[in-house]
Structure formats: structure tokens, C-alpha cells
Amino acid sequence: MRVAVLGAGAVGSRSARQLASTPGVAALTVADPRATLVASVVASLGAIATAVSAAEIDLAGHDVVILAGPGKHHRDQAERALEAGASVVSCTDELGPTRALLALDDEARVRGRTVAVGAGFAPGLSDLLAAHAGRLFDEVHEVHVARAGTGGPSCARAHHAGLRGLALDWRDGAWVNRQGGSGRELAWFPDPVAGQDCYRASVPDALLLAPAFPGVLRATSRVAATRRDRLSAPLPMLRQPHPEGLIGAIRVEVRGRIGQSFETVVYGAVDRPGVAAGAVAAVIAVEIGSGRLTRSGAAGLAVLCPDPLPLLLELADRGIRGATFEGSG
Amino acid sequence: MAVGIMGLVAAVLRLRGTGGTPPQSGGWRELSGPDLR
Prior knowledge:
The complex is a heterodimer.
Chain A (H helix, E strand, L loop, with lengths): L1 E5 L3 H11 L6 E6 L2 H9 L5 E5 L10 E4 L6 H10 L3 E4 L4 H8 L2 H7 L2 E4 L7 H10 L4 E10 L4 H10 L3 E6 L2 E6 L5 E4 L6 E6 L4 H5 L8 E7 L2 H6 L15 E11 L2 E11 L1 H17 L7 E3 L1 H4 L4 H9 L4 E7 L1
Parallel strand pairs in A: 1-2, 1-4, 2-3, 4-5, 5-6, 6-15, 7-12
Antiparallel strand pairs in A: 7-13, 8-9, 8-12, 10-11, 11-12, 13-14, 14-16
Helix pairs in contact in A: 1-10
Chain B lengths: L1 H15 L8 E6 L7
């Protein structure tokens, strides 16, 4: 298969590295407006990879296109990819671009292509863990996702903006907008991230998860934030974000009925968000390119991969491992 | 003036919040074996 990766930052470079060592990937095209950066990334990948200017890339002939740059470009890039006959894997973690990509559902179905939306750490790995947990239940009533940490600068900017935007929760069969930065909850992530105060934010997790669980009553998402994060959220970012964030974590809590009892299952993961997101995007791209993921249309990973076990096993082989919380909260 | 002071107090309280309760028992373990079947 031939794969194009648009974006050579924290996520795109990791995704390209994963793909370069994956059997079945015959050619890899990496594009980014930063010529020096993309050249250095491609030089480390060997002969399989080619560096192309972002303005000059021709998507024709590629089976899958991974969108790993800023989310504001993903809709246009996805349309170009679909027109070129390729499926799309978007790593966006922003609500606006996610909505725009999901609106491509009809076009993707007509073309018989897949648009995998939110193939990162959260959304992404969180969706796979939620789908895996959901298989334990006879009825899923609630799905709650929390995340801590950011990947590259685009992710850090999205986190900053998300705390001042409107959050989207699924409550009792309807979408409800809540103010970002509200709804403090202490979420307990896997060590070493451990307990973090988390808040509502303008993130797309609930939008991607709710359709995967018919009849679900509540789907919510929160992000970890410090007091400084919340205080400065209404302001522009006063300094450039770090090239890459430190260790991050996700937590997925699924509640529902198993037999006659009501149970709660909590899954999580801890990793550098950029590394985990790159691996998830690569694994999904390979799944699509190899023909194992055949569902056409635009959706999140929990919808596209109702049985995520093979993907979780593949990610575990690549060092991205989930965890489960056992105890009382 | 009074409204301003009340707003300031509300903002401080909102920023400080009340946190939450950590888990009382148990812990995390890696998904393995029966979890991945």
C-alpha cells in the first residue's frame, strides 16, 4: 500500500516512522510546509519515504492519507484525498474540524472510502478502549473520557482554545452545550500522571463516541487543566507552545448493565500523546490500506472498529498498552 | 464596587474549586490475558 502523511510534526513524524517499519507499506510520502523538517524526517526513514512540499503533493495513487497537521486544514485535505480515490485518517482532536470531517460521510460512502476521524490518543486510543469496554456490557448507559497532556504545538493550542470554547455533552438523548473550563472532576489516571483536575472543554470525544453506543444516555469528555490554564484560557497563548508535551494519559469510564447488575469498567493508558497518536494513526491506516477495515463513510474509531481487539493487540506490540483500574472510587 | 468585589470572589472560588475524592482502594494494572480476548 502507498500512504501519504501530511504533517511532519510530533504526530506525523511518529506515524511515518511506524509505517516505515510496517510490512505491506510499499511507499510513504511525507509532506509538510517546513522543508527542512520534512527532509530530516524522511532522511531518517530510509528509501521507502519521499519528502514532498505540502503545496506540491499529488495524492493520486495513494491508498490512505494521514492528516497530522493543524486541524483547520483537515477538511480541505480530506476532500482532496477523497477526490484522488484515497481513504483518510485524521488525527484531529478539535471539535470544529471533527464536525467538518464527519460531514463528509455521504461523500465517503458514495466513493466507497473511509474517513477515520480522531485517530490519535484521545480521541483515538480512547475510542478503541471504550469500544473494547463496551463489548463487556449488555447495555451501555454512560461513557466518560478524560485526558491529560498534549502532543505537539497544534494539540497544545487546541487544548488552550478548548477551555474557552463550548463543550459538547450527550445527555439523555440530546446534545448539550456547556461552558469550557467548567465541571471540575478529579480524574485518576494511570501512574505516573495519577490524579488531575479535569474540566469540560471544546473537544470531540463525545461527538465521536455517542454514535457507537446506541441507547447510551450520557457521553462526556474532560481535559486536565491547571489553574493557570483556566485563568489564561480567554487570552491568546502568550508564548509559543513547547515542541512536544511531556507524558500524558487517558481514562475511559464505561457504565452500564451486565446481566442483572450495573457495573463500571475503567480503562486507561499513559504515554507521550504524540507517540501514541502516531502509532494509532499508523495502525488505522494499515487496517484500511490492507482491506481489513472495509466500512466506508466518515466516523470515529469506536464506530469504524466495533471489535477493536486486534488493533489493541497490534498497538500493544508497538508499545502502546492499555490499563484497567480495579478498585473502588 | 460591590459587584466587582463579588465577581472577584466568585472568580477566585471558581479557580480554586473543591477538587474531588481520590480512589479509596485499588489501582491500575496493564491490560493482559483475559482482558484482551
